[in-house]
Amino acid sequence: MNTMRAEDPNYGSIPQRPAGPPFAAAYRPTPPGAPQTTAPFLSSGPVVGSEASGFRPTQTLNSNIPYMPPPPSSYGPPAAVPSQHFPTPQFSSTVQPPPLRPSAPGQPVLTSPFKPPGVHLRSSPLSLHQPQIPSVPMGSPPQSVSHLPSGMSGPQPFPSTFPGYPSRPSAVLTHPPPVQPAPFVTHQGGYGPPPPGTSAHLLSHQRGYVHPPPVAQMQQQGSGPPMGTLQGLTEDFSSLSLASIPGSLDPGLDYKVLPRPLDGDVEPNSLAEMYPMNCHSRYLCLTTSAIPNSSSLVSKWHLPLGAVVCPLAEAPDGEVPVLNFSATGIVRCRRCRTYVNPYVTFTDGGRKWRCNICSLLNDVPGDYFAHLDAGGRRVDLNERPELTKGSVEFIAPAEYMVRAPMPPLYFFLIDVSISAIRSGMLEVVAQTIKSCLDRLPGFPRTQIGFITFDSSIHFYNMKSSLMQPQMMVVSDLDDIFVPLPDDLLVNLSESRSVVDAFVDSLPSMFQDNVNVESAFGPALKAAFMVMHKLGGKLLIFQNTLPSLGVGRLRLRGDDLRAYGTDKEQALRMPEDPFYKQMAADCTKYQIAVNVYAFSDKYTDIASLGTLAKYTGGQVYYYPSFQSSIHQEKLRHELARDLTRETAWESVLRIRCGKGVKFTSYHGNFMLRSTDLLALPAVDCDKAYAMQLGLEEALLTAQTVYFQVALLYTSSSGERRIRVHTAAAPIVTDLGEMYRRADTGAIISLLSRLAIEKTLSYKLEEARNSVQQRIVKALREYRNLYAVQHRLGGRMIYPESLKLLPLYGLALCKSIPLRGGYADAQLDERCAAGYTMMSLPVKNLLKLLYPSLVRVDEYLLKASSQADELDTSRLPVTAQSLDSRGLYIYDDGLHFVIWFGKMLPPDVAMNLLGEDFATDLSKVNLCERDSELSRKLMKMVKKFREIDPSYYQLCHLVRQGEQPREGFFLLQNLVEDQVGGMNGYVDWILQIHRQVQQNA
């Protein structure tokens, strides 16, 4: 079994999958009495554990849409817990935002007393008054707000409650009058404020998370798992004090003291502190690093229990060690096939080793034998990275291969219809491909090929004996065949001159084309026929809705009547099963598909994205592409796609200890068997999420182990296995689970579950499921302290989850989940869903809660001080914007540069030149001949270098310029009430009220 089949017993045969959604929904209810069937095509397994005790979203009535009863759901809170909106409260937190900029003229100025880091001001807590508040559902935005197309045309009023803009009364929420907020201290339990003599340092430790003492008697590396009793955390929690506004019965919260990730999204390290031999959390991150020992604990956890895996993440500290066991053979457990790792133990003088996953005692191969010292450690431990490091890479011997490693293959399928020519897409793609030819991985083995299409299919013979490429046109779309099949794929190094000639002539070859049709489906079949012997990466450049031949699609995204009904979710699923079947065939033959979509009209990303979804690929979406505006973004992202290191012909499996199993998987891949992910191509920008379930009680063990194994072919032609190993303690205390939770991993898994839910349910039900999970988790945590502490009107939470409500709100406002028809075009919504399904944790958190940074003060500093760039983040709310300032909003995918209307004109003139007074939608940000411009471009470049996985395109916005400002910035300010959805303050108070009900 030491072959690739050891990872994949059914390698090469993929079961046919029935039609299903592109995000592999794990939430499809079974009709009463329906037989249970398996659906191997879905990447989500059965719902178990905490998923089974779910939530029933609250009903929301929309005055514009007839009431429809919801479909049966596996989510269901008690009927007595209605979803409510509540007015604004005031409370305090550990995270202190920087002092606010002055508000726009004519607006109330909110001041915040200066508090040095770590110092918390005190005041007596006021009692919470809780008047009867009518229940207000979360609701979709008003249907009258129409979506703004990318061209920014059309005078659309943007409803806002932002400083400096007229606001209209909200039909959903009422806000208390602005007042000078008083700071409130956060307390533990029911204790009052500390005595006046308490030091500021002590105060900073009296709230929140207390780290556990070190694990007693940690054993030496390589000699076995850490032992000793796990010390419980003290009964300590963070809280937000709610108070009443003077002269009002409405409870209020001071928005300035709400928890926010203004210091950046810190990567978790609590597990690494306890188990220093664990792999880094960016490779494997658990939603809680305390694993429950029983199903009863799982049912009380309420949040997703699982992990997020990014197997090829960029190494945080040096390179992953590469090991060659050619003489010995890779040492693995003979029963569960676990790879030798730092947590195995050696016995019998070094002649046997015990597997940490299944506890089987294995013989040590003769060539791998080493004596043990007095402490039970191998004497060669320091020379064995696989016994001291949580992440290693093994070079696989020949028995791990079912065929010789294939060369890297890049195949381009390019739309050349009239819209692709006029937008400039074809020219930018051709230029970018040529610029990357010298940097494609795998030289000199790399293979390359091209097909173009409009109403017919064009093949290109580029064998090295030719001076110029030969074009062959196939017009019969019903019976596709491949002319000269052996000459359509060529070795790049041998045919370089012919390939150069082809990409140089490609734009001019079709410059007069007026064909409006798209035979995309037949062209896709032709590309598959060319590639299937080798596999590789298929890059699709699609500019028009497929209109001819197999796989043709129809306009269905503008069906307003479907929104708010049970037909709505069908629009987010692929229309034609052809694309799923092609994705299954591509995966079987190791072909990964990346889709680049450009159209200014509907192109059914829901269907086309299926190709990327099931082949481990990626969707890039450029709505209304114009080369004059978007070419740099396309150049960067296509170049990164072509040149980043890629793992080919991959399969991934994650093993875990006895009593624990992974029950469902979420992301872009094909599930080949119950636990084997087929990934024709993997890179550092892809992450996968999975849910955990318990098979039996774990009381007999203190630790559970996880091991991720990725078997792949490197671009150089080596077969390798990358292995990440981690350990986590098993606990009997629910509070410990919550205190050791990781918000980033929870949100990453929760976002995938919610996006999948939108394929079977209405958007509102997906949003409510997120809200109800947060409510139930915080209620369960509160109940742990309800008896021994007088909690009063405070909202309590573990320090580890202080940002969970904020990210939950941001998730509900994200493009895949927000509002209804008016809030996002269907293609935009589906493309964002595909993107979020594959993002690593850090990128996802940045997308959900972007950076907002003020930059005008830095630009105006003297040159000698210019190196001190203050990138401190501001709360993502309109109250952070000063009309005299210049701000950059960065969500990892886009920049919005906001010019306040009171910004000194000479600053705008220096940055934009003569264009500063014109329509900013027609202005490109570029370096101009001024010191301010050079400093701004340097800053923008620095922000882009922080995360190169995407290129942030700059959108310039002037304060008050509608609808552009509303579309790019105001509706994306997560903390504000926009389009009928809660602001941060109202969301927190609403969650707090729901937590208190039945608490």
Give me some keywords for this one.
single chain, 999 residues, alpha+beta, 8-stranded mixed β-sheet, 22 helices, globular
Derived structural class? alpha+beta
| Number of helices, counting only DSSP H or I runs of 4 residues or more | 22
Give the rounded overall mean pLDDT: 79
Our estimate of the beta-strand percent is 15-25%
The shape is globular
Distance between the termini: 54 Å
- Number of distinct beta strands: 31
The main sheet comes to: 8 strands, mixed
Low-confidence parts lasting 5 or more residues at pLDDT below 50? 1-6, 8-235, 244-249
Rg measurement, Å = 29 Å
The helical percent reads 10-25%
Topology, please?
Elements (H helix, E strand, L loop, with lengths): L3 H4 L192 H6 L32 E3 L2 E2 L6 E2 L17 H5 L9 E3 L4 E2 L2 H7 L4 E4 L12 E3 L20 E3 L4 E3 L6 E3 L27 E5 L13 E7 L2 H5 L2 H12 L10 E7 L3 E5 L8 E5 L15 E2 L4 H14 L10 H12 L4 E7 L34 H12 L2 E7 L7 H9 L4 E4 L5 H17 L3 E10 L3 E7 L3 E2 L5 E6 L5 E7 L8 E11 L5 E13 L2 H6 L3 H15 L5 H21 L11 E3 L6 H9 L13 H13 L2 H8 L2 E4 L1 H4 L26 E5 L3 E6 L5 H8 L18 H16 L6 E6 L5 H5 L15 H13 L3
Parallel strand pairs: 5-26, 7-11, 12-13, 12-17, 17-18, 18-19, 30-31
Antiparallel strand pairs: 1-27, 2-3, 4-6, 6-24, 8-9, 9-10, 11-26, 13-14, 13-16, 14-15, 20-23, 20-25, 21-24, 22-23, 25-26, 28-29, 29-30
